[in-house]
Amino acid sequence: MGFNPQNGRMSKGSSWSDVDFTPLAGAKVLVTGGAGFIGSHLATALDSIGAVVTVLDDLSAGGDPAVLPASVQFVKGSLLDYALVEKCTAGRMFVFHQAALGSVPRSVEQPRLFHDVNVTGTVNVLEAARKSGVKRVMFAASSSAYGDSETLPKVETMPAIPRSPYAANKVACEAMLSAYAASYDLDTVNLRYFNIFGPRQSPDNAYAAVIAAFAKALVKGQHPQIYGDGEQSRDFTYIDNVVLANLLAARSEKSLKGAVLNVACGQRVTVTELAIEMARLLGRADLSPIYKEERAGDVKHSLADLTLIKQQLGYKPIVGFKEGLATTVKWYASVLK
Question: Are the beta carbons of 223 and 287 closer than 8 angstroms?
């Protein structure tokens, strides 16, 4: 997906080529975590349609401000520094809250740290937004909220069953966004992301997302490692779809009132299928996956129902799994050699 800064419209994806984002042109916005994987794609898109973008990121998750356009203001700092959060939020119309500590297994190892950054940090963002007169906060929620329920697809009205400290953090933050929307003159929306992937997602840590981890192994001539039997499935969602959902939420003329909305492709792929397809794309079909013990906190299956977000925002995915995977694998092949 690309954006035409002259007319504020999407330049790829016939289904959404007529979506008009000019209402966001000139709007002052804050993107927390904006030097990271998701945040940097979002900040770049906002900049390209004429928004005035400030990014706040402490770079603890490995973000790189060098990937941001020169016109984006970058501020290095933590969500736990309330005075700084308040300063970055002042005068902003929208806040796209993407900053968080990720990784289910790491949250199991460091639950207090995850609570401090993810939950307390989100309350700091909400308080600053309330005091600054922000119109709407878009929150990066997580499909991990659904836990290990066997019901598919996942519908937003299902009870939250967090199975890890990370998932519990995200559920707590959703509740806070809904409470602020009900209690104050601040609109909010919880966008529940399903297994986001794409270029610039880091493979260089022990908790790398599965597509990034598989890419690193395969490019280096190693067998990808799967934790569990490989039959676990995910609704892998290319990054451009997440950008679209955030922009649609920001430009919505109706109050969203803390709504929880799934952001995904609505397609289920097993982890074994993923490993085999990535090996094929890289010309390494000989590198079959190796299976290891299942990790604590991981859920078995994930698939999103997209009915509500279509109704509320007019969202539908503009880049499918296979197209997004091919683009992503090509990017990893170019940078990991």
Answer: yes
